[in-house]
Protein 1
Amino acid sequence: MTSAPRIGVFVCRCGINIAAYVDVPAVVEYAKTLPGVTYAEENMYTCSSDGLNKIKEAIKKYGLERIVVASCTPRTHEPLFQATCEESGVNKYLFEMANIRDQCSWVHQKEPEKATEKAKDLIRMAVAKAALLESGDEPEIDVTPSTLVIGGGVSGMRAALSIADQGFNVTIVEKESTLGGKLRGFDSLFPHKQKASEVLMPLITRVSTHPRIRVLTKSTVKSVYGFLGNFDIGVETRQGVEVLKVGTIIVAVGADILKPKGLYLYGEDPRVVTQSELEQLLHKGEVDAKIVVMIQCAGSRNEEHPYCSRICCNEAVKNAINITEKESDVYILYRDLQTYGIHYSRLEQEAKRKGVKFLKYQAERPPLVTSEPDGLKVSLYSPTVNEAVELRPDMLVLSTPLVPVADAKELSQLLKVPLDSNGFFMEAHVKLRPIDFATDGIFICGTAHSPKDIGESVAQALGVASRASIPMAKKRVRTAAIMSQVDQTRCSGCGTCLDVCPYNALKKNDKGLAETIAAVCKGCGVCGATCPEKAITMHHFTDAQIEAQGLAALEED
Amino acid sequence: MKYALYLGCTVQTEQYGYEASVRATMPRLDVELVGMVGVSCCGFPPFSSVNELAWLYSSARNIAIAEEMGLPLLTLCNGCHLSFTETIHKLGNSPELKVKVNEKLAGEGLRYDGKVKLVHIFELLHDEVGKDKITAALTNPLKGFRFAAQPGCHSIRPSRVGRPDNPENPKKLDELITWLGAEAGDYPEKNDCCGSSLAVSAGKVVLDIAGEKLKAVKRRGFDGLVTTCPFCFKVYDNKQRAIQAMGGKEIDMPVFYYTQLLGLAIGLKQEELGIDLNQSPVDELLIRIGGA
Amino acid sequence: MTQRKPKMMDKVNAETCDQCGKCPSSCPVTVRIEGFNPRQIIAKVALGKEAELMKSQVLWTCTSCLKCKERCPEEISPYDVILALRRIAINLELPHPEGYDESVKAVVETGVVQQPQLVRTRNKERKDRKSMGLPPAEKPRDMTMYTKTLRGILEEDEL
Amino acid sequence: MKPVLVIGGGIAGIQASLDLADRGTKVHLIEKTPSIGGVMAQLDKTFPTMDCSICILAPKMIECYRHPNITIHSESEVVNLEGAVGDFRVKILEHPRSVDAKKCTGCGLCSEKCPVKRPSSFQAGLGQRKAIYLAFPQAVPLIATIDRDACLWFTKGLCRTCEKVCPSKAVDYEQKENLIELNVSSVITATGFEQYNPKDIGEYGYGRYKNVLTALEFERLVCASGPTGGVLSRPSDGKVSHNTAFIQCVGSRTQTVGYSYCSAFCCMYATKEAVLIKEHEPSSHVTIFYMDLKTFGKGFQGFVDRAQSHWGVQYIRGRPGEIREDPVTKNLTILYENTEIGKVERIEVDMVILCTAAVPHRENKELAQVLGVELDEYGFFEVGDPVSSPVETGKPGVYVCGSCHGPRDIPESVAEASATAAKASENIVLSEVGQ
């Protein structure tokens, strides 16, 4: 065995985030005493370009072979430090991080001494592991220059068009017999009230005539294998099952509109309709009610659908304007009016000027709707006048929420992507990765992600058109070397690992033994943990490394 | 500096102390006051709640007289000042209304033009007489006294028609007080209404509203309350005993018209300033002020 | 439901009210007189319930402090709305405090709300303008014409 | 292949640049201030994950800095644009930093020794910086810059201390502004927004009452790297605020003083800030005065529900009429109506946070003229049609993303940024086909 590698430790003060509670200089001094550590220093912000340069200089000056940074979380900063190592010729897998902020200084602000001790422990553990780190090679894979778009609504079509215009082939898989999705059900569109058909029809024509776009209607995705760059998609079409080879996948399946059976006499009294049914009636010009009452949050912001559906208020306001222009009185009963931003604020003001009447109601005291011999009766307590109000509408319109499509769960399991607590598809990071999935090569846009209006859906659609094209434009991509490896001499071929792998990253080879598909493996470690033969090694998280780390944790100094 | 002096109903029929102190002090500051012959009620409040045209007519009528005199129009009362301002504003924005009003005025051979320069007494003192003239005239500076300013609603609101001072942070009356050698001071209740216009419909409420401010002014350690509005004065001074009777608690807050304090500070006698008409307990303070 | 709006209610743009609550929280009366709430008044105007408001006594309890007009974010003036409603109410001879009729009568007939008073000094002496050394009070030059004009105006239908 | 011009180095501009650069397109990122990062860099945490804002942003900033395909022009502005989509000729004016970018290591010694203090705009005016300074510790590029209006050498011909102490001799008082010309295929505008200054809303006393702050000032106050080190001590006396109130719609939803639109994200940042207070001190009292709770975004309602049920944040529907300051204690009394029950009440608090509207950048007018695109009546950039072309201006090849065309939250801005990258990429393919 070769001589112990030379380890460098960089302790970040993170301004005062760490330094205010952890005695950083002391920690640095301590680090210098650890086995294998040839150099240690502190930085104000190790992640600043200055800090990164210090790492590079130290690597050259002291011939460091392993780098440990004690700072914040690998979630955000590891790639940055790894890249820095690579730039100085140290393989990124020879880098180790100790989180002495989130799990140390922040949580022990009231006990600085203990925080300092814990920081030392964490660094000791990281150094122990670092000594055993091995460099890794990242598999590089070709990317098939073709995208699968699941869903032929506005989002799906706009995403497809942009990707096609960026020079890649696209296949749209739509389960209905026609393109267009929910937009087909709209009369006019807010905020500017142009006719839905004027937006939809030209779009459908462009999509169906684009040389790079192929549309499969009445088709559904049945199977998904492979990984970023090389997906094999089994699609059931009218002509039977077809296998598509694509590089990236876009989920644009949209959402359904809740039909609130039994709520406010819906389904019992014909004069009670949903906002989307009203759209149809308006479209056919079949609304002749003199007094119309609209109830917002009908079936949303409650136990069953705890979220706000975003578009219902604006749809109601838009329809209310259309109806008041026909000399009818419209009352909108709302909880919190979601007319956000510039366009919808304008819409709200227009509605008010045109005499649409707004009455607030309270969630805990929803309106009571009864069917009297002489018509509908809506009674409520309204904070607007702070008293009971009674209305006698000829028509009652319920603004119901968008809900996840029926087959969302099924699709999420096929794609191995998560759903949120409301059943909508869940993005990789709420703030900074809003249209990526955690799984590489799969993206999300439109109302499948959460309720949103057409413009917002289109923006996301164009967004994924960029995200999904990046790897195709690059032609080749690397994937992490943190992966499992099956020891063929130990594997019994029981197949347990194949069953538990959440990424379909293992297959049986011709010898009937398990084998990792390097490019697909995410290194989650489930297979390694379950293998009864201990035949699976997790690179970068080997038993030896973890054991060393664990023992270091128990060491007394 | 020459001004057409418009007294208004309240001042000329009962608030003699205000009028006397104005007439006594202004000449000392080289302000010449010219009486307005044939003036009538400005229309506020009697007509504001009854008939808008009657209000505009009454108001325009007096403006017309000032315009006839060719002098800037000086008011002592917040109500009159706002009434005139709103009339100038409304008639300025509506030529039709202006014609209509002038038809009515023609009967008396009057003509409203709307070009008149309108000024409130505290505005005149602050913006036109100014600090130097006032401080120069001081013979008996009110050192060591701390007065709460009461600008009164109608002198600061509504700002959108243009008022003599800031609607949320009025400072002119405070500055006028400090120019007399006394101290002023911000207090949270400063911009609150005196409630006087409720006298017609809900007298008790007036006392409650006014009492709240008087108690606050007391609590915050002021030596007295100073105003340039006859309506405010009527409540805080004339009704103070009634407020005390209702509220039970001792208030004993001396209340003055600013022009009365000004008079004392430039060496005029109490009698010249009609201070004997103040109903609030001012005597002790007057002794401390001393001077002439 | 909505009944004919009187002409003078046209420009009050009550319907643009956001029900924010800034006016009542600025109002010295809302905290003291049950039922007087400028926000609710505007809401009722927006809902076409003027008739109900004009009958209500609270209509007469505004102090005209103008904070509502000053601060309304939508440039609605509850104060002006209230004045407008009062004028209609008086015009329709609905019940209202008699104080208004008295001062109107006084102004129409004498040019001022009241005749110069005898006022008392702190030590109970009585004083009038003369004893104060003040010039006699002013009144319109041509009183009959003045009165005639005002009567004429008051008889016109403002609605 | 021609590069793409991205104007504005906030999160939107950063995302647009990275999308394009990652696919192999050269990008010129123009930033007016000394560092990229924008408003997001000033925020303490971001909901609902409560990630430390700069912690998740900094890696992306550094990524821009290190990306071979991205050139950052800080302290620069676009002064001229000619040509058409696929072939724009643009002039960039780089203002002098008075510091040699190649030599400066960002060690900060110069500002340590600089004698002149000025309010730090990064600390929203609550903290101070020197005449020569680094915008903030994680600034990108990490290069010092001299504020010539403050510097003693430039104003009085004195000092030159920074020059003496700089170990790498980077200070250069003679540095001139620099005009560069670029040929780009598309232009992406991501200039963001400004916070409304509430001083004109007199009844709330901002500027008069020390303990009335704006939400952005609060973000710095509550931030561990802020002027108080994250201690919620109020300006008047440094006393920790145990009772704090937030007021929504300050400068928004009004026809009088301010802007008539709803600023979209204030309800949620107020809720986040309220939760931050509770995280610091669960026993402290927090009240939010709102008009309509805008919980329209993904996860918003859930976050608000948790703020109420778990953290005990109190929501009151009512826009306060007035704030009063006690002349002695400097405590603030809020006059409000609980409109749910129509009752007028008062509450005394230690500190009030005004949730001010996001308003158009004052420079938009000038930039719009240079770019030859339209602004809306408020001064935000106008898109052709918000429904079918949400990121396209009237001018082909010029795109907008983020809050420069109306208030948007971070995820919307990020998605739109990628959208503009897609449009720009379409243009590149088109022009290549053309050739």
Protein 2
Amino acid sequence: MSDVNTAMVQKYRNDFLKEVEENVEEGHWVKMCMQCGVCSGSCPFGPDWDHPPQEIFMMIRAGKRDEVLTTESMWMCTSCYNCIVRCPRELPITHIMHGLANYAHRLGIAPKMNPTRRFAKIFWNNIAKTGRVNELALSLKLYFMDGFMSGVKNALAMASVGIGMLKTKRLNPFALISHKGVKNPKELHVLLKKAREIEDRRKGIAS
Amino acid sequence: MSENKTAVYVCKGCGIGDRLDTDQLAKVAESEGKCSHVRQHDFLCNKDGVNTIRNDIDGEGVTHVVIAACSRRAKTEAFGFDDVALGRANLREGVIWVRPDTDEARETTQEMADDYLRMACAEIQYMKQPEANQNAGTNKNILVVGGGVSGMTAATEASKAGYGVLLVEKTGQLGGWAAKLHKRVPDREPFADPHDTGVSDLMKSVELDKNITVFLNSSVTRTSGAPGQFSIDISAESGETVTDNVGSIIQASGFSNYDANQLPELGYGNSPDVVDQAELEQLAKQATDGPIKRPSDGKEIESVVFVQCAGQRSNKPGHLPYCSGHCCNTSIKQAMYFKDANPDVDTVVIFDDLRTPGNGEDFYRSAQRKGVIFTKGKNQQVSPINGQLEVKFHDMILDEEAVAKADLVVLATGQVPNSGVDIEQATTLDIEEEGGESEAPAEAATSDAQIPVDSILNLTYRQGVDLPHLRHGFSDSHFICFPYETRRSGIYACGPVRRPMDIAQTMEDATGAALKAIQAVENATLGRAAHPRSGDLSFPSFRREGCTQCKRCTVECPFGAIDEDEQRYPVFNESRCRRCGTCMGACPVRVISFENYSVDTIGQQIKNVDMPDEFDEKPRILVLACENDAYPALDMAAQQGLEYSAFVRVVPVRCLGSVNSIWVTDALNSGYDGIMLMGCKKGDDYQCHFVRGSELAHERMSKIDDTLQQLQLESERVETYEVEITDIHRVPTLINEYAAKIDEIGMNPFKGF
Amino acid sequence: MAKKEYSFYPGCSSERKASASNYMVSVDAMCEKLDIKLNEIPDWNCCGASIGYAEGGELPRHVMNARNIALSEQNNPDQDIVATCAACWLGAKETADRLDASEQLLADTKEVLKEAGLDIHLKNETPIRHMVEVLIEDIGYEGLKEPMVKSLEGIKFAGYVGCQTNRPFGIDGESFENPMYLDKMVETVGGEAITDYDKKVTCCGGALAFSEPEKSQKQIKDIIEAAYDQGADMIVTPCPVCQMNVEVYQDQINKHYGTKFHIPVTYYSQLLTVAYCGNAKEAGLDGNIIRAKQLEEIAAK
Amino acid sequence: MTDVVATNETILVVGGGISGLTAALEAAECGKQVLLVEKNPSVGGRIAQLYKYFPKLCRPSCGQEINLRRLKANKKIRLLTMAEVTNVAGTAGDYDVSITIHPRYVNENCTACGACADAVTAEIDDPFNYNMTKTKAAYLPYNMAYPQRYVIDPSIVGSEDANKAKAACKYEAIDLDMQEQTIEIKVGAVIWATGWRPYDAAKIQPYGYDRFPNVITSVEFERMMDPFGPTGGKLLRPSDAKPAKNIAFIQCAGSRDRNHLTHCSRICCMASLKQSTYIGEQYGDDADAKATIYYIDIRAIDRFEDFYKKVQADEKVHFIKSKVANITQNRDTGDVVLHGVDTEGYQRYDNTHDLCVLAIGMEPSVRADQINDSVSADASGFIQPNGANAAIFGAGCATNALDVNRAVQSATAAALRAIQVVNRVSSAEA
């Protein structure tokens, strides 16, 4: 368990709901759920959720901290926003799921090997670097995240796609060297660093 | 009134003139109906037609009018002559609309019409234009029993309309349960927070109201009389008794809290920190918006669990099978007591179905916003464990056994009505020991709860000291469309004694009851019947000399209108009477009648049809039809052009309960081949607005079978049916099938004797 | 028609040699014909996309978008921000809403932006809109008809709206479950929109097409199947992610499910450009991996 | 010109449904002068369109027959049909009211013989059946319609059809020159009983009421059971008139929903429990016939619990604690497929049904804030308890989502509040 995590456990003792309300994006909405289940039924990846959103809300109220923060469920969110627009209580469910995933990730107890978690990390680093997506770098990073050999396999598997994109000039073969981002990436890095600092301060996460 | 002058008006409109020989009808009226004054009109319900009748009444001194046209249910505006005795021969819906327009059918159709005219003429001759009850009481004060929110509301609302009120409260102060509340559930926007109860204001307005006399520490020890002239004894604990008169009565005796001691599994009695909702109100009051303290040791409460449906919605012996309706909102309100004082207090509501109808949903949302946790759970168990309480339950969402720890547990127990003595059993015993007919108790004392045995009203009525109970001991009306249709004229229950309710509903209900009480005294003063025959001026009279003191009338009167004197003769309380005629139907010696509805008005109709002899192959079938369900159904069938046998003669009756067996035996003797009785639905969900009319008819007719055997007649000659007003297709079918059956079993051998 | 000007937020995928470069090409041509001037927000950055949440968290994500909004307020004052990419539109609009809703968040954001000498005002000062809104609300279907030269008659389109152009904000007056604007656009330019295309707003997996390919491709399969079931010749969409996901994985899906999918996936802007007599290049048709032959033919006429 | 005698001691009742009718009758039976205004051609309102009442499963027309008898017998009530109150101005005890009366084109001579209906050919949507069927353009609104008088639909006035109708009437009952008229009257108190209307189901997009023929509303389902209804009393589904046996009921359709009606409509749970019994009534013990009720909470309050228990005991009826996420349609069969999650222990389902009934929510027919400034509205537009000293009193479902029994209680209470006002007026004038 990471020290941030233990710190939080001590801070909130068994009041997980409070912890979520104070640290998770839009977390203060959790208590408004009335367990109708519309969100769970509306999710495109629904069947792949061990615990659907409405159940997660109940688990939060029931103080099932570890089960919630270590589940892969939230990582199944495709950000389709079906749950948000259908929720009779207008809970911003998509954001709460994102928030929970992010929180678990920040505490270092999110499922290590979850592909979406890892892709999300790669993606953010990719855009944070230059301020704009470098699609080539992104895809390569992604293919090779499990090491070289499997990377080659993935790359080959995706070859047809890549070639198609290249042929239609929708992928820049030279992006690794010639990718352009914002004029002053350094400045952007400062902004993001500062933002992270403030957020951590607000959430009492020492980093 | 001088001697009768009867006029008959035959309408030729709506095809009657084309389909029937109206001259022939006129002849029938003159010769057989013995009416000198007969007119035909092309279109009787138009201005000219109506004026003709009006002029005859005013100019010619006509006292009795027969209108041979459409159904008595049609054209009531045009034919609403309420200053004469009025009869309607139903030639349209009753004859031409249910018969084919063919040459073969002509003869039988005409016979039908002729008979209906004969019947109307016969009826009218035995009818008097009723004059209102002479010994009607005129007292317009209202007695309100119970000084809680329902009683106080009823009292002030009646007073605001200008009526005097006597308010009797058992305890030493007004206010009832509501006065013990810290706050109430909101009844207006934004439905977000508990409100002041407003009870103290209500108490003030009662005390300051000059129209209202309050009797504290008192109860009603005797109630006799009738609407407009009730006589009551109000006895104080001190022993002194005041006797007074009132015009009508409102029973607002409220509810008692369910005894939580019956719920040991929920920890009540095992720990002082397990309380019911009423006790929590006290704790909250003491705290006065500050932190609420734990009864056991005065510790500030940090966590509280609310257990919904405690001893409610359950068929376990000793539990309440019903839902008390208000408890979900009440627990939400009480959870807010804690949250508003200190948001860090954990408040958990464990519910099965959360029931917050209407704007209660906003209140529910507001509680969630304040951080109240709602958990769907079942099978709660509460046990004290080292200084705390442990609530075990099955979490329905996570589908697992769960435990919640709390400093305090609040049990949402239910409301038990203070509805006095369950007279159903009392009277049953009473009747049996007197060898009268016994009736099974409709609602044998349910396992619901112990009902307080003290009588609320101490009625001196033959049929018991209190209002009849309905389901689960509540004194409610049985009718969905008529929540105030009481079974004791002039006495109206309101508030939680009628149905579990919260303050808002109670105030609405009490206001409604106040109106009915006012209406009762106004009607009584004019000697008029109350709902459902509202406005009816007739009332029962009886020939004492003929009476055999059999007490059937007093037993069967559904409204307890008839008492008995020391010689066991019936004593009619006209103003209590609802004019259903059940007594008339019950009387074996036929000494009871109404001016406009009597053994004769119906009996003569039956006798006066033209009875073909048995070789005519023209059977005659008598249909006695309930005027509220079967008769309208027949009308609407006609409207739809559905046909039925020309051999039936339909006579509408107020209620099958008013059908006297003599009509049936006479009918058989005078040659009818079959008799159909059409009443409304009986049983638990009975439709009869005179309570047991249909039931009684079935009972009485089952006894007729013996008579039939003596006469050596087939039992099928008399059939009783349950008919709903919507049986528009069914009724004609029933008739036709019955006609076919009569055809099978053949003619009545008594014809022509 | 008076020239309409907007502050334009193209987004990463629409850059040269990026996955939606052909979308951009057709948008340029379309706007040309509709007399719409797009003033690119100078030095704009990525919106963070939805998937950015996991590592980026809340404030950093909003800062990314706030920076773009600030740059727009500064350089293109009084111009609505218009995005062609669903994710860009959603990200920017979401940030704007959230900052307007929370003073705390706004203050924090301002504090951060100060580091770059930027500031942000908001309270709907600069409405953030999708290109589709511009077409429907500012130009109108009638207006969209005006420049029309060629009809797309004879082509059956499955209007695939997807998620983020449709939820949570969506297009005014359209339902989340059954939006009709793509179909109306198709009909405006003479094409045939297939009726009751019940996968119209089904999720293609979005970014999870990368991380959860099997699950996403199951979704994509349904989306394409439904289009075929209704006899569609091609799919049309307003979203770069949808376009790519639905187009590029068809081979893999065919391998995995034994299907024979080969259906072009086009952008509404490509349709309009062709209808407005743009050639295949202007319409970015050369950017479609699965060639939209029928469109190319009409373009060639 | 309609002559109406009304004074400051008259009580105006707006709306002739069960609530308005009750308020009018109760006041009149206390001896008060009442003017009853109904915008439709006949009184009765929504209850006339119901097949049965819960929990007794008795017939609404039974109580209506009694009320009509009371109405026919009571000379203190003046009834205006096809009339709408267009303005209420003034203060307690002294209101000026404008009423617009629309032409019926049929006068009191009408004997309801039906000759006009036989004569015309044109047909119009039948609002009594929620427009599921057509009716002749000369029509009696329904079997028990009162006044028992036909109506000529304005759409045919001036046409050959109308003249045919006129010619067919032997009683000079048809007057095609009738004009709309507005009357100005004084009244002392107003009882507002304009009732409710079903929430627009098409707005609940995930359920596709506007896209799938076999998704209908509870009020439409109720009409199906009526032998004189659109399907002659059979449960035939719209798409192919096949008997609907496997029927789903979706609770809170529009209610308890921030996207639609925020309040709970109270009656819908009981309505669906009631309607689930229709299936047994229609199909007996046919094994294929079953009801599935999808709910969040079953709100069978107070003694309604008995009825809930009774229905729970019926093995034909199944309960699933779930708000259905969305509905799709099987193109080949027309069946509807309900998708969602049973939240009691997390079970996903995609259930196929012959027919889906939306337990549709109640909203006020007229929003309280449109009546008069002195009337206060709650968030849903219902009339709030009258705090001010105004004398415009809400009754029945204009005040809240109520079942019939509570609506009648409310109307009875409103009658007294109005009487208090006119009594004050009369004592002041005396």
